[in-house]
Structure formats: structure tokens, C-alpha cells
Amino acid sequence: MAKMAASVLEHGEDAFRKIFKLYKRRNPPPDFSDVIDFSKNLKNDMVFSVELNPSAVSETDACRAGLRPVRDWRAFGLKEHSGFIFISNPFLPGSQQHWVRQCLKTYPQKPNVCNLDMHMAPTETEDIWKKSADILRKKTQGKREPKTLLEKLRWVTLGYHYDWNSKTYSADHYTQFPPDLHSVSQEVAAACGFHGFSAEAGILNYYRADSSLGIHVDESELDHTRPLLSFSFGQAAVFLLGGTRREDPATPMFMQSGDIMVMSGPSRLLYHAVPCIVPAPTGQPLPACLQESQQGTDLHTDGLMQEVPLEDWELCSRYLHTSRVNMTVRQVLGDGQAFPTDTTSRESEGSPKDGQHEQQEQDLKAKKKRNSSGYDLDL
Ligand code: OGA
Ligand code: MN
């Protein structure tokens, strides 16, 4: 592992912003040699192995959620970021496909909420997958054609639906949290020592090749003692984990398909960002773990995981050639906790910086202005 670039270690007003810009740069492309790659054998003084609790999740329950037995997971911590746990792709071969299809076909469906609902009628956003599938299947690469709804999808909220304007969740905007995602989250949390984790809110982010997510902290949840879970699928991204102050320097790491991050303890409220999606190597647009067959596995026998039909997977895989999907799962309320009755009091407490998602194209038009997708950039 190369020594960390000076800019990464540098303390000072703009350390995070500087490193964000460095990885966001297109021309010339950034040097990724300082980015921690947990999928490789690591020789890095900042990284240590984390022992998870194999008895917290039975092998059967893990398998039901498409996960390997916990004893086989490779988990890491970072010395500078206590409570942060990185689990390098613990999914069983052939099981990521289920989650990808959920993100592209199932979770965007009503009653869940997505960015397109902000400026389209409910009937128009009713079945994004169906409305996009035929057009996408026929699309020829490189040709300029109007974007389908699936290609315009930027975020979906689940459970307690996050309100991007007030930066709050509320009791009266809740729909059932997907049971499969609830289960997998509970198991990952338990393996990391957090028993009784209850997935109550989810934010799914859809990244195209030129997307990024600005520097922010997720602090809108009312109980910060519960971890935040993050699952990534598709193209790899650089993830930056900073400190408690916005200007603190950040550690860059790759998030690859199947990787799970747990932000718990002191790391729960650290600044973080996704400056770029990493271009796939030529000739290998999809990572190998997404090409593993679902056949021959008994993943789909008891209902939690569904086998993805080939025609669905063809479309998912085509979409993922140029995209990344990330699911963040949050517990909003602690045990016995309730939402405050006066929501205005929370807003006056400060300004939570969540959901600062930037998309290149829209950003060109309106820098620092909330864009139509509901995210904004404030670098
Ligand atoms: C978020 C977030 C990170 C990612 O949605 O709050 O930080 O990897 N996502 O997409
Ligand atoms: Mn976040």
C-alpha cells in the first residue's frame, strides 16, 4: 500500500473538500493508488481485522438472507474511525441479484417515494420498471435517446420517508419497510454486536457514471446509538470517511459490489461523501460477483430471497454496466422513543446536512441550488 497522499493527511480548513475534488476530477483521471481496497490483502497501518460474532446469526438465517456464514465474513476497522466496520462482500454467490432487482424493480414501486414523484403525477411514476423495460431493452448504445424513468431514478425512500426539505422523518409519513431488507439488516447488525436493530427508514441512491454524493452527516434519525448500514451493488465507488468536523481530512476507500459498511458508535456521526464512481476496467463492465449464477443454490427455497428471472436480470445487468446502487438502512427511533409533536423545534436545532446528492448534468445548471431530484450540493 502506498503512503497516503499528503492531502489526505493534511489537517486544515479544506482537507475534506480538497480530497473530494481530487477524486471527483475527470481530466486527468485521479490516481486511485491511495484508496484502501478491502478486497485485497491489506498491508496498511490504518486498517485492522474485526472479529464479528458468528453465533449471533445462525447459518440458516444468514443463508435465508443470501449471506455466507458469519464466520467466513472478512470485516475490518479503521484506527482513526472507531465504530466503523467494513464487511467485504459477505453475500453468497448468486444472491446479490435479488437485491439489485429489488432496488430497480420492486422498491421504487408505490407506496415508496422517489425523486420522480417530486415533479410527476403518481400515475406517471406508478411502475417505473414496466414503463422503462421495453425501451431500455431496445436501446442501442451510444445513440442519443431520451432517458427512461429508470435512468432518471436518483433516490427512493422506504419506511419513514425522509423529507429532504425539513430534513426530518415523521410519524405520519410511514409505509411498511420491506421485510427482506429488514431481515438482512437485522442480521448484519447482530453480527456486528447490535442486537434488536430495527430497520425503519431506508434511502436508496442510484448513481450513474458521473454522479457523486456531497459531504454530509446523517443525523436526522432520533437515536444515534443505533448503527447505520450501507449496502452497495454494481459499479465501484470511492467512499470518503472524514471526522466530526466538516473540514477534517478523510480516508478514501473503495466500495465494491456486495460490500457492507456499518457506521456505529463514534463513527455514526462522521462526515462522509462519495466523490466518484470508478470506471470499470475495459472488457469487464460487470464485477465477477454479479456474474455468478443463481442456479444450483438453494437460496430461493423459503421465500425471503427470490430467484431473478433471466429477462429481469438482463435488464438489471445492463443498467449496472454504468451504474451503482446503494441502500442505506437506518433505525430512526430508539426503544420507547417517539417523534416530537412539534416538528419545528428540531429544525431550529441546527442544520442536518443530509442527502447532498449531486448529479453532474443538473449541477451544471444550478450549483448550490436544490435540484429537481431533491438533493443538493454544498461543497
Ligand atoms: C447516504 C450515503 C453513501 C453511499 O445515503 O446517506 O451516505 O455509499 N450513501 O452511497
Ligand atoms: Mn450518508
From TrEMBL:
<dbReference type="GO" id="GO:0035516">
    <property type="term" value="F:broad specificity oxidative DNA demethylase activity"/>
</dbReference>
<feature type="binding site">
    <location>
        <position position="272"/>
    </location>
    <ligand>
        <name>Fe cation</name>
    </ligand>
</feature>
<keyword id="KW-0539">Nucleus</keyword>
<dbReference type="GO" id="GO:0141131">
    <property type="term" value="F:DNA N6-methyladenine demethylase activity"/>
</dbReference>
<dbReference type="GO" id="GO:0140078">
    <property type="term" value="F:class I DNA-(apurinic or apyrimidinic site) endonuclease activity"/>
</dbReference>
<feature type="domain" description="Fe2OG dioxygenase">
    <location>
        <begin position="193"/>
        <end position="333"/>
    </location>
</feature>
<feature type="region of interest" description="Disordered">
    <location>
        <begin position="335"/>
        <end position="379"/>
    </location>
</feature>
<dbReference type="Pfam" id="PF13532">
    <property type="entry name" value="2OG-FeII_Oxy_2"/>
</dbReference>
<dbReference type="GO" id="GO:0008198">
    <property type="term" value="F:ferrous iron binding"/>
</dbReference>
<dbReference type="GO" id="GO:0035515">
    <property type="term" value="F:oxidative RNA demethylase activity"/>
</dbReference>
<feature type="binding site">
    <location>
        <position position="218"/>
    </location>
    <ligand>
        <name>Fe cation</name>
    </ligand>
</feature>
<dbReference type="InterPro" id="IPR027450">
    <property type="entry name" value="AlkB-like"/>
</dbReference>
<dbReference type="GO" id="GO:0035513">
    <property type="term" value="P:oxidative RNA demethylation"/>
</dbReference>
<keyword id="KW-0805">Transcription regulation</keyword>
<protein>
    <recommendedName>
        <fullName>Nucleic acid dioxygenase ALKBH1</fullName>
        <ecNumber>1.14.11.33</ecNumber>
        <ecNumber>1.14.11.51</ecNumber>
        <ecNumber>4.2.99.18</ecNumber>
    </recommendedName>
</protein>
<keyword id="KW-0223">Dioxygenase</keyword>
<dbReference type="GO" id="GO:0042245">
    <property type="term" value="P:RNA repair"/>
</dbReference>
<dbReference type="InterPro" id="IPR037151">
    <property type="entry name" value="AlkB-like_sf"/>
</dbReference>
<keyword id="KW-0479">Metal-binding</keyword>
<comment type="subunit">
    <text>Monomer. Interacts with DNAJB6.</text>
</comment>
<keyword id="KW-0804">Transcription</keyword>
<keyword id="KW-0692">RNA repair</keyword>
<dbReference type="InterPro" id="IPR005123">
    <property type="entry name" value="Oxoglu/Fe-dep_dioxygenase_dom"/>
</dbReference>
<dbReference type="GO" id="GO:0006281">
    <property type="term" value="P:DNA repair"/>
</dbReference>
<dbReference type="GO" id="GO:0005737">
    <property type="term" value="C:cytoplasm"/>
</dbReference>
<feature type="binding site">
    <location>
        <position position="216"/>
    </location>
    <ligand>
        <name>Fe cation</name>
    </ligand>
</feature>
<keyword id="KW-0810">Translation regulation</keyword>
<dbReference type="GO" id="GO:0005634">
    <property type="term" value="C:nucleus"/>
</dbReference>
<keyword id="KW-0511">Multifunctional enzyme</keyword>
<dbReference type="GO" id="GO:0141137">
    <property type="term" value="P:positive regulation of gene expression, epigenetic"/>
</dbReference>
<keyword id="KW-0456">Lyase</keyword>
<keyword id="KW-0560">Oxidoreductase</keyword>
<feature type="compositionally biased region" description="Basic and acidic residues">
    <location>
        <begin position="344"/>
        <end position="365"/>
    </location>
</feature>
<dbReference type="GO" id="GO:1990983">
    <property type="term" value="P:regulation of translational initiation by tRNA modification"/>
</dbReference>
<keyword id="KW-0234">DNA repair</keyword>
<keyword id="KW-0408">Iron</keyword>
<keyword id="KW-0227">DNA damage</keyword>
<dbReference type="InterPro" id="IPR004574">
    <property type="entry name" value="Alkb"/>
</dbReference>
